[in-house]
């Protein structure tokens, strides 16, 4: 018998299209999200502690992401009624500085696992019945730009998810790259020199806005 292979879209590919029922009504992806960045993320099940802390965190950051032209879409294989009951319960909870969180982004009902399978969220080594904790960051052209996977036991780092959006938007708007641990306001990396002449010019340049550690590694200073 031929083994069924679990497939998933790759970085740089167009995000698989789908229509789904959600806690905010039906959505048609990516048609309904033209011109927007999207964080599509899955969780294993409703009424689980790790997922609850994540939804409280995402819910508290909705305005931050909206200010970055970024929309959130959640998914699990539970039913719509389970989603609604869970989100109502979240409004009653208090954790750290988060309380009475109203989750207003859509949470997809995916009982048949149709969307989860399109995105490779069902991984038999972890579970045949639950979506693993996945994150897909999708740009305004509906292309996948980042993929993150977490094991069922490990909550996501939301500061990092936000930082990735900031870094991608910075790179797209200014034709640059961001170094390790980059944060907004840090210096950025300029494209590598494409010729010996350009490399020589960069190394000899007295430009106060740019500096090189070597010919292939040049930075642009960010104005404070």
Distance between the termini: 62 Å
Structural class: alpha+beta
Compute the CA-based radius of gyration: 21 Å
Spans where pLDDT lies below 50 across 5 or more residues: none
- What share of the residues lie within helices? 25-40%
- Order of strands across the widest beta sheet? 7-4-3-8-9
Can you tell me the overall shape? elongated
- Beta content comes to 15-25%
Question: Helix and strand succession?
Answer: EEEHHEHEEEHEEHEHEE
Whole-number mean pLDDT: 89
Largest sheet: 5 strands, mixed
Number of strands: 12
Number of helices: 6
Provide an overview of this structure.
By secondary structure, this protein is α+β, with helices and mostly antiparallel strands. Helices cover 26% and strands 22% of the residues. The protein contains six helices and twelve strands. The chain has helices spanning 49-60, 62-66, 80-90, 114-118, 158-174, 196-204; strands spanning 18-20, 27-29, 37-42, 70-76, 94-95, 98-99, 107-109, 133-138, 144-150, 188-189, 210-214, 217-220. The strands form four sheets. It has a five-stranded mixed sheet. The protein has a three-stranded antiparallel sheet with strand order 10-12-11, with no helix packed on it. The radius of gyration is 21 Å and the shape is elongated. The mean pLDDT is 89.
List keywords for this structure.
224 residues; alpha+beta; five-stranded mixed β-sheet; three-stranded antiparallel β-sheet; 26% helix; elongated
């Amino acid at each position: 018998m031929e083994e069924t292979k679990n497939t998933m879209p790759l970085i740089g590919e167009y995000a698989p299209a789908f229509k789904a029922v959600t806690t905010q009504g039906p959505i048609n992806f990516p048609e309904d999200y033209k011109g927007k960045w999207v964080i599509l993320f899955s969780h294993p099940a409703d009424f689980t502690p790790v997922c609850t802390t994540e939804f409280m965190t995402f819910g508290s950051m909705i305005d931050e992401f909206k200010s970055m032209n970024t929309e959130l879409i959640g998914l699990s294989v539970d039913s719509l009624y389970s989603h609604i009951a869970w989100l109502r319960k979240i409004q009653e909870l208090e954790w750290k500085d988060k309380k009475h969180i109203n989750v207003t982004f859509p949470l997809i009902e995916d009982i048949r696992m149709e969307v989860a399978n399109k995105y490779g969220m069902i991984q038999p080594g972890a579970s045949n019945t639950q979506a693993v904790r996945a994150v897909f960051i999708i740009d305004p052209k509906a292309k996948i730009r980042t993929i993150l996977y977490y094991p069922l036991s490990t909550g996501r780092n939301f500061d990092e998810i936000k930082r990735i959006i900031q870094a991608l938007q910075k790179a797209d708007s200014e034709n640059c790259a961001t170094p390790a641990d980059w944060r907004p306001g840090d210096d950025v990396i300029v494209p590598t020199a494409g010729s010996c002449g350009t490399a020589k010019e960069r190394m000899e340049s007295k430009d106060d806005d740019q500096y090189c550690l070597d010919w292939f590694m040049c930075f642009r200073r960010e104005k404070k």
